[in-house]
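Checked the freezer inventory, then went back to the computational side. Two predictions to log before the end of the day. The first one is the construct we discussed on Monday; recording sequence and C-alpha coordinates without edits.
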Amino acid sequence: MTPGDRLLTVLSALDNPHRLRVLAALQAGGRNYVSRLAREIGISRPLLHLHLNKLEEAGLVTSHLELSQEGKALNYFEIAPFHLEVTPRSIVDAAASLTAKTEK
Protein backbone atom coordinates (compact mmCIF):
# COMPACT_ATOMS: atom_id res chain seq x y z
CA MET A 1 0.00 0.00 0.00
CA THR A 2 1.39 3.39 -0.95
CA PRO A 3 1.79 6.15 1.67
CA GLY A 4 -1.10 8.05 0.07
CA ASP A 5 -3.41 5.03 0.09
CA ARG A 6 -2.40 4.29 3.69
CA LEU A 7 -3.19 7.84 4.77
CA LEU A 8 -6.64 7.64 3.16
CA THR A 9 -7.31 4.30 4.86
CA VAL A 10 -6.31 5.64 8.28
CA LEU A 11 -8.25 8.89 7.91
CA SER A 12 -11.30 6.96 6.74
CA ALA A 13 -11.06 4.70 9.77
CA LEU A 14 -10.87 7.71 12.10
CA ASP A 15 -13.83 9.44 10.44
CA ASN A 16 -16.43 8.05 12.85
CA PRO A 17 -17.24 8.93 16.47
CA HIS A 18 -17.76 5.27 17.45
CA ARG A 19 -14.31 4.34 16.19
CA LEU A 20 -12.74 7.24 18.08
CA ARG A 21 -14.53 6.03 21.22
CA VAL A 22 -13.23 2.50 20.62
CA LEU A 23 -9.65 3.76 20.38
CA ALA A 24 -10.12 5.94 23.47
CA ALA A 25 -11.53 3.02 25.48
CA LEU A 26 -8.69 0.73 24.42
CA GLN A 27 -6.12 3.40 25.24
CA ALA A 28 -7.64 4.02 28.66
CA GLY A 29 -8.30 0.41 29.65
CA GLY A 30 -5.85 -1.61 27.60
CA ARG A 31 -6.76 -4.69 25.64
CA ASN A 32 -10.33 -5.82 25.90
CA TYR A 33 -12.67 -8.42 24.47
CA VAL A 34 -15.61 -7.57 22.24
CA SER A 35 -18.51 -8.15 24.66
CA ARG A 36 -17.00 -6.08 27.46
CA LEU A 37 -15.89 -3.34 25.08
CA ALA A 38 -19.40 -3.15 23.57
CA ARG A 39 -20.89 -2.72 27.05
CA GLU A 40 -18.35 -0.04 28.00
CA ILE A 41 -18.94 1.97 24.84
CA GLY A 42 -22.69 1.37 24.80
CA ILE A 43 -23.11 -0.12 21.31
CA SER A 44 -24.17 -3.54 20.05
CA ARG A 45 -21.60 -6.25 19.41
CA PRO A 46 -22.44 -6.47 15.67
CA LEU A 47 -21.96 -2.71 15.28
CA LEU A 48 -18.74 -2.85 17.30
CA HIS A 49 -17.44 -5.65 15.05
CA LEU A 50 -17.98 -3.45 11.99
CA HIS A 51 -15.99 -0.63 13.57
CA LEU A 52 -13.24 -2.92 14.86
CA ASN A 53 -12.85 -4.45 11.39
CA LYS A 54 -12.39 -0.98 9.88
CA LEU A 55 -9.83 -0.06 12.55
CA GLU A 56 -7.99 -3.35 12.08
CA GLU A 57 -7.90 -2.95 8.28
CA ALA A 58 -6.29 0.46 8.84
CA GLY A 59 -3.68 -1.09 11.15
CA LEU A 60 -4.85 0.89 14.19
CA VAL A 61 -5.86 -2.13 16.31
CA THR A 62 -4.91 -5.79 16.44
CA SER A 63 -6.93 -8.77 17.58
CA HIS A 64 -6.06 -12.05 19.27
CA LEU A 65 -8.43 -14.95 19.79
CA GLU A 66 -7.98 -16.59 23.20
CA LEU A 67 -9.80 -19.24 25.19
CA SER A 68 -11.14 -18.41 28.64
CA GLN A 69 -10.78 -20.85 31.53
CA GLU A 70 -14.33 -21.97 30.78
CA GLY A 71 -13.34 -22.79 27.19
CA LYS A 72 -15.15 -19.82 25.65
CA ALA A 73 -13.44 -18.11 22.72
CA LEU A 74 -12.80 -14.41 23.40
CA ASN A 75 -11.57 -12.04 20.71
CA TYR A 76 -9.31 -9.48 22.39
CA PHE A 77 -8.47 -6.16 20.74
CA GLU A 78 -5.73 -3.70 21.54
CA ILE A 79 -4.29 -0.58 20.00
CA ALA A 80 -1.47 -1.16 17.53
CA PRO A 81 1.43 1.26 17.84
CA PHE A 82 0.89 4.11 15.41
CA HIS A 83 1.80 7.73 14.91
CA LEU A 84 -0.15 10.06 12.67
CA GLU A 85 1.11 13.47 11.71
CA VAL A 86 -0.70 15.37 9.00
CA THR A 87 1.12 18.37 7.61
CA PRO A 88 0.88 20.19 4.29
CA ARG A 89 4.09 18.44 3.19
CA SER A 90 2.83 14.98 4.17
CA ILE A 91 -0.37 15.60 2.20
CA VAL A 92 1.62 16.61 -0.90
CA ASP A 93 3.77 13.48 -0.56
CA ALA A 94 0.74 11.27 0.03
CA ALA A 95 -1.15 12.72 -2.94
CA ALA A 96 1.79 11.98 -5.22
CA SER A 97 1.66 8.29 -4.31
CA LEU A 98 -2.09 7.66 -4.58
CA THR A 99 -3.03 4.68 -6.71
CA ALA A 100 -6.80 5.17 -6.66
CA LYS A 101 -8.43 7.67 -8.98
CA THR A 102 -11.45 9.41 -7.50
CA GLU A 103 -14.26 11.21 -9.27
CA LYS A 104 -16.57 13.90 -8.02
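The second is the one RB wanted added to the comparison set:
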Amino acid sequence: MKKYEVQPGDTLSAIAHREYGDGSLFPAIARQNHLADPNSIDVGQQLLIPYITRRHLLTTPDSTAVRKQITQRYYGTEDTGVQLIWEVVNGVAQRAIQPGAWLHIPELADVGHHTVTESETLSILAERWYGDANLGVMIELANHLPSGSQPAPGHVLVVPGLNRRRGVAGDTLRSMCEDHYGPADLDTRVGVVAAANHIAEPEALFSRQVIHFPS
Protein backbone atom coordinates (compact mmCIF):
# COMPACT_ATOMS: atom_id res chain seq x y z
CA MET A 1 0.00 0.00 0.00
CA LYS A 2 1.45 3.35 -1.01
CA LYS A 3 1.27 6.70 0.75
CA TYR A 4 0.17 9.83 -1.07
CA GLU A 5 0.22 13.48 -0.03
CA VAL A 6 -2.77 15.46 -1.26
CA GLN A 7 -1.82 18.17 -3.76
CA PRO A 8 -3.67 21.40 -4.67
CA GLY A 9 -6.64 20.61 -6.89
CA ASP A 10 -6.80 16.94 -5.91
CA THR A 11 -10.07 15.12 -5.45
CA LEU A 12 -10.49 11.49 -4.44
CA SER A 13 -12.08 10.79 -7.81
CA ALA A 14 -9.09 12.27 -9.64
CA ILE A 15 -6.66 10.30 -7.47
CA ALA A 16 -8.59 7.09 -8.12
CA HIS A 17 -8.62 7.77 -11.86
CA ARG A 18 -4.87 8.38 -11.86
CA GLU A 19 -4.08 5.31 -9.73
CA TYR A 20 -6.66 2.87 -11.05
CA GLY A 21 -7.93 4.20 -14.36
CA ASP A 22 -11.44 4.40 -12.85
CA GLY A 23 -12.45 7.45 -10.84
CA SER A 24 -15.53 5.67 -9.50
CA LEU A 25 -13.25 3.55 -7.30
CA PHE A 26 -12.64 6.56 -5.01
CA PRO A 27 -14.75 5.02 -2.16
CA ALA A 28 -12.00 2.39 -1.72
CA ILE A 29 -9.57 5.18 -0.80
CA ALA A 30 -12.18 6.85 1.40
CA ARG A 31 -12.87 3.62 3.30
CA GLN A 32 -9.19 2.86 3.74
CA ASN A 33 -8.59 6.30 5.26
CA HIS A 34 -11.85 6.48 7.28
CA LEU A 35 -12.91 9.68 5.56
CA ALA A 36 -16.30 10.83 6.80
CA ASP A 37 -16.70 13.12 3.77
CA PRO A 38 -14.97 11.88 0.59
CA ASN A 39 -15.48 15.31 -0.94
CA SER A 40 -13.39 16.98 1.74
CA ILE A 41 -9.63 16.37 1.66
CA ASP A 42 -6.93 18.86 2.57
CA VAL A 43 -3.71 19.80 0.81
CA GLY A 44 -0.85 18.04 2.59
CA GLN A 45 -3.10 15.32 4.00
CA GLN A 46 -1.49 11.88 3.95
CA LEU A 47 -3.57 9.13 2.36
CA LEU A 48 -3.05 5.40 2.14
CA ILE A 49 -3.77 4.17 -1.40
CA PRO A 50 -4.74 0.48 -1.59
CA TYR A 51 -3.38 -1.37 -4.60
CA ILE A 52 -6.20 -2.08 -7.05
CA THR A 53 -5.30 -3.49 -10.44
CA ARG A 54 -5.56 -0.78 -13.10
CA ARG A 55 -8.76 -0.76 -15.16
CA HIS A 56 -9.23 0.17 -18.80
CA LEU A 57 -12.66 1.00 -20.20
CA LEU A 58 -13.12 -0.12 -23.78
CA THR A 59 -15.13 2.61 -25.50
CA THR A 60 -14.71 1.53 -29.14
CA PRO A 61 -15.48 -1.65 -31.08
CA ASP A 62 -12.90 -4.40 -30.59
CA SER A 63 -10.24 -4.83 -33.27
CA THR A 64 -6.64 -5.93 -33.73
CA ALA A 65 -5.60 -2.27 -33.89
CA VAL A 66 -7.44 -1.41 -30.67
CA ARG A 67 -5.73 -4.27 -28.83
CA LYS A 68 -2.35 -3.09 -30.05
CA GLN A 69 -3.16 0.43 -28.85
CA ILE A 70 -4.06 -0.85 -25.37
CA THR A 71 -0.81 -2.83 -25.20
CA GLN A 72 1.22 0.17 -26.36
CA ARG A 73 -0.51 2.50 -23.90
CA TYR A 74 0.16 0.43 -20.79
CA TYR A 75 3.33 -1.48 -21.66
CA GLY A 76 5.10 0.68 -24.24
CA THR A 77 5.16 -2.08 -26.85
CA GLU A 78 2.94 -3.78 -29.41
CA ASP A 79 4.50 -7.18 -28.72
CA THR A 80 1.82 -9.86 -29.13
CA GLY A 81 3.23 -11.85 -26.21
CA VAL A 82 2.69 -8.90 -23.88
CA GLN A 83 -0.75 -8.34 -25.37
CA LEU A 84 -1.63 -11.96 -24.63
CA ILE A 85 -0.93 -11.38 -20.93
CA TRP A 86 -3.80 -8.93 -20.41
CA GLU A 87 -5.99 -10.90 -22.80
CA VAL A 88 -5.53 -14.06 -20.72
CA VAL A 89 -6.27 -12.19 -17.49
CA ASN A 90 -9.55 -10.91 -18.93
CA GLY A 91 -10.52 -14.11 -20.73
CA VAL A 92 -10.57 -12.38 -24.12
CA ALA A 93 -7.68 -14.10 -25.89
CA GLN A 94 -10.12 -15.94 -28.15
CA ARG A 95 -13.30 -13.92 -27.89
CA ALA A 96 -14.44 -10.41 -28.71
CA ILE A 97 -14.43 -7.62 -26.15
CA GLN A 98 -17.71 -5.75 -25.96
CA PRO A 99 -17.62 -1.92 -25.88
CA GLY A 100 -18.22 -0.78 -22.32
CA ALA A 101 -16.23 -3.65 -20.80
CA TRP A 102 -13.75 -2.89 -18.04
CA LEU A 103 -10.41 -4.67 -18.55
CA HIS A 104 -7.93 -5.48 -15.78
CA ILE A 105 -4.40 -4.45 -16.75
CA PRO A 106 -1.75 -6.40 -14.78
CA GLU A 107 1.48 -4.63 -13.87
CA LEU A 108 4.76 -5.89 -15.30
CA ALA A 109 7.11 -3.10 -14.22
CA ASP A 110 8.38 -2.40 -10.70
CA VAL A 111 6.79 -5.59 -9.39
CA GLY A 112 8.03 -8.22 -6.98
CA HIS A 113 10.16 -11.27 -7.66
CA HIS A 114 9.99 -14.83 -6.42
CA THR A 115 12.65 -17.53 -6.26
CA VAL A 116 11.16 -20.89 -7.24
CA THR A 117 11.48 -23.68 -4.67
CA GLU A 118 11.21 -27.44 -5.03
CA SER A 119 7.78 -28.70 -6.18
CA GLU A 120 6.48 -25.22 -7.11
CA THR A 121 4.80 -25.04 -10.50
CA LEU A 122 3.34 -22.08 -12.35
CA SER A 123 -0.21 -23.23 -11.62
CA ILE A 124 0.57 -23.61 -7.90
CA LEU A 125 2.06 -20.11 -7.82
CA ALA A 126 -0.85 -18.64 -9.78
CA GLU A 127 -3.34 -20.17 -7.36
CA ARG A 128 -1.37 -18.81 -4.40
CA TRP A 129 -0.85 -15.32 -5.80
CA TYR A 130 -4.06 -14.74 -7.77
CA GLY A 131 -6.55 -17.40 -6.68
CA ASP A 132 -6.65 -18.89 -10.17
CA ALA A 133 -4.35 -21.72 -11.25
CA ASN A 134 -5.18 -21.01 -14.89
CA LEU A 135 -3.22 -17.75 -14.66
CA GLY A 136 -0.01 -19.77 -14.64
CA VAL A 137 0.15 -18.92 -18.33
CA MET A 138 0.28 -15.23 -17.41
CA ILE A 139 3.38 -15.88 -15.26
CA GLU A 140 4.85 -17.92 -18.12
CA LEU A 141 4.31 -15.11 -20.62
CA ALA A 142 5.53 -12.36 -18.28
CA ASN A 143 8.77 -14.27 -17.72
CA HIS A 144 9.28 -15.25 -21.39
CA LEU A 145 9.34 -18.94 -20.51
CA PRO A 146 8.95 -21.59 -23.24
CA SER A 147 5.33 -22.60 -23.70
CA GLY A 148 4.31 -25.39 -21.34
CA SER A 149 7.61 -25.34 -19.43
CA GLN A 150 8.11 -25.18 -15.68
CA PRO A 151 10.83 -23.10 -13.98
CA ALA A 152 13.52 -25.02 -12.13
CA PRO A 153 14.18 -24.47 -8.40
CA GLY A 154 16.26 -21.33 -7.96
CA HIS A 155 14.79 -19.61 -11.00
CA VAL A 156 13.82 -16.01 -10.17
CA LEU A 157 10.40 -15.07 -11.52
CA VAL A 158 8.80 -11.68 -12.08
CA VAL A 159 5.51 -11.61 -10.15
CA PRO A 160 2.98 -9.68 -12.27
CA GLY A 161 0.90 -7.23 -10.25
CA LEU A 162 -2.71 -8.39 -10.14
CA ASN A 163 -5.22 -8.47 -7.31
CA ARG A 164 -6.05 -11.90 -5.95
CA ARG A 165 -9.55 -13.06 -6.80
CA ARG A 166 -11.98 -15.61 -5.50
CA GLY A 167 -15.40 -16.86 -6.48
CA VAL A 168 -18.30 -16.67 -4.07
CA ALA A 169 -19.41 -20.09 -2.85
CA GLY A 170 -21.74 -19.67 0.09
CA ASP A 171 -19.44 -17.13 1.75
CA THR A 172 -20.16 -13.66 3.02
CA LEU A 173 -17.94 -10.75 2.11
CA ARG A 174 -16.91 -10.50 5.77
CA SER A 175 -15.93 -14.17 5.98
CA MET A 176 -13.99 -13.92 2.72
CA CYS A 177 -12.14 -10.83 3.92
CA GLU A 178 -11.30 -12.45 7.25
CA ASP A 179 -9.99 -15.51 5.45
CA HIS A 180 -7.91 -13.38 3.08
CA TYR A 181 -6.62 -10.64 5.41
CA GLY A 182 -7.13 -11.99 8.94
CA PRO A 183 -9.30 -10.51 11.71
CA ALA A 184 -7.44 -7.20 12.17
CA ASP A 185 -9.29 -4.03 11.12
CA LEU A 186 -11.94 -6.18 9.45
CA ASP A 187 -14.58 -3.46 9.08
CA THR A 188 -12.13 -1.35 7.06
CA ARG A 189 -11.15 -4.33 4.91
CA VAL A 190 -14.76 -5.19 4.13
CA GLY A 191 -15.47 -1.58 3.19
CA VAL A 192 -12.45 -1.34 0.87
CA VAL A 193 -13.18 -4.66 -0.84
CA ALA A 194 -16.84 -3.73 -1.30
CA ALA A 195 -15.86 -0.39 -2.83
CA ALA A 196 -13.19 -1.93 -5.08
CA ASN A 197 -15.75 -4.37 -6.48
CA HIS A 198 -18.60 -1.83 -6.75
CA ILE A 199 -20.65 -3.79 -4.21
CA ALA A 200 -23.35 -1.53 -2.80
CA GLU A 201 -24.78 -4.21 -0.48
CA PRO A 202 -21.93 -6.24 1.10
CA GLU A 203 -24.42 -8.74 2.52
CA ALA A 204 -25.95 -9.46 -0.88
CA LEU A 205 -23.38 -11.49 -2.81
CA PHE A 206 -24.49 -13.90 -5.49
CA SER A 207 -23.28 -17.33 -6.56
CA ARG A 208 -20.44 -17.30 -9.13
CA GLN A 209 -19.64 -13.66 -8.35
CA VAL A 210 -15.89 -13.05 -8.47
CA ILE A 211 -14.36 -10.82 -5.79
CA HIS A 212 -11.00 -9.03 -6.33
CA PHE A 213 -9.07 -8.28 -3.15
CA PRO A 214 -7.04 -5.03 -3.02
CA SER A 215 -3.64 -5.21 -1.40
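For RB: The domain at 165-213 is CATH 3.10.350 (Membrane-bound Lytic Murein Transglycosylase D; Chain A). The CA atoms of residues 49 and 124 lie 29 Å apart. Let me know if you want it refolded.
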